[in-house]
Every structure is written in structure tokens, then in C-alpha cells.
Amino acid sequence: KAGVTQTPRYLIKTRGQQVTLSCSPISGHRSVSWYQQTPGQGLQFLFEYFSETQRNKGNFPGRFSGRQFSNSRSEMNVSTLELGDSALYLCASSLSSLNEQFFGPGTRLTVL
Amino acid sequence: AQSVSQHNHHVILSEAASLELGCNYSYGGTVNLFWYVQYPGQHLQLLLKYFSGDPLVKGIKGFEAEFIKSKFSFNLRKPSVQWSDTAEYFCAVNARDGGSQGNLIFGKGTKLSVKP
User: Fold this and answer.
1) DSSP string of A40-105?
2) How many CB atoms lie within 10 A of CB A108?
3) Which of A38, A52, A91, A106 is a Cys-bridge partner for A23, taking CB atoms 3.0 to 4.6 Å apart?
């Protein structure tokens, strides 16, 4: 089975811009979760989608949003980018919310 | 609020030494427990998991972990480390109740450096 894929792998944006990241889960997985990884804060949960519905949201501002499509693919969007949004954004998929999560390689976002 | 503590930020060992990485969590309900590993330049991979049953679980590459409910701990062990075990190790918890399923809470990670 192919693993979780994320595109793009690297992204450079400037402050104030917006960005959309994409995630394709493992075939058959219906739950997709997003995490932000930074050296200072570690891995922090952003949100989780299951069957196109956001079921859980972390403690991030409303500039961070996401969605899931009927084929379970997911996108996350960050609007009005700030320097502090520079991070590795990880997507993980699982069969359900309680199963183990499989992670993609991440998208490295740099905000200048 | 749930939290996960990993006691060691950086551990340096020689090959063949034994490894134990500590992990404690704070949550009063039922949890699923995980250890993930991130090798240099690679993505997070699942090492092992505990859902229920035997509190001693075995994972890949000779790793094992023991869940001690009374201590809210899930320590990772390996009897003899190899240079290829150099990586960052993350403990994670998923509450099975309370409506926060799908939300993995991670520890800050422990960097393991194994000297050849």
C-alpha cells in the first residue's frame, strides 16, 4: 500500500500570504489529522477530519482551517501568514480516530 | 488537559548499551499509547502501540514498552542499541473517551545518539 503523501514538500511564502497544503491518506483510511512541528513547541495537533467532517480541533487561531473531500483527501489552509507559522506540517491518516496514525513526510513551510 | 512528559531531552549511548526512555502522561481516563521514531531525514514511523491487554508490548527493531497504569507511564526499552537507532523518539497518547479521539498528544521527544 502506498503511504501518506503530502504536497508540496517545501514552500516559501511571505508574511500576509495564504497557503494551501494537500494530503492524500492511505487507501481505505477515513481519518486524517494535521499536526504542526516546530523545534520549540514540538508536535501540536491542528485538527482531525473523518468522513468530510471536522471532529476535533486544536488550540490554533482561525487562520488555520482545513477540509476533507469525499475521497478522504484533505487540505489545510493558512491565511495571513505570520513568521511564526514557519514549521513542518504533518498529515497523518488512520482507519478510525482510535487506530494508530500513519504519518506523511510533511510540508516544510518557510514564511519570510 | 492531557499532557505527555518525556524525561530526557538527549541521550547518548555507546553501541550495545541498554536503553530506557521515560514517558509519563496525565489523563484520568482510558488511553491508547504509542511510541514513534523519526530517523534523520525521514518521516515519523510507528514503533509500537498499546491499546489493551498485556501491558508489555513488543514493537519493531527489538523495541518494547511497558504500560504501568498506576504510574501513568509507558517507558520504551531496548536491551542493546545499534548505531542505526540514532533518531528522535516521541511518546504519544490518544484518549479513548472525552471526545478527543484522533488527537494525538505528543511528548517533546528524546534525541538518541548512539556512538559506534
Assistant:
1) TTEEEEEEEEETTEEEEE-S--TTEEEEE-TTS-EEEEE-S--GGG-EEEEEEEESSTTSPPEE--
2) 15
3) A91
Q: What is the number of residues in chain A?
A: 112
Q: Looking at the partner chain, which of B103, B108, B109 has a beta carbon nearest the beta carbon of A45?
A: B103
Report pLDDT digits (tens) over B40-99.
989 999 999 999 999 999 999 999 999 999 999 999 999 999 999 999 999 999 887 766
C-alpha cell at A53: 467532517
What cell does B43 get?
518521516
Tell which of B31, B39, B52, B103 to mutate to test the A interface (max A CBs under 10 Å): B103
d(CA A92, CA A45): 11
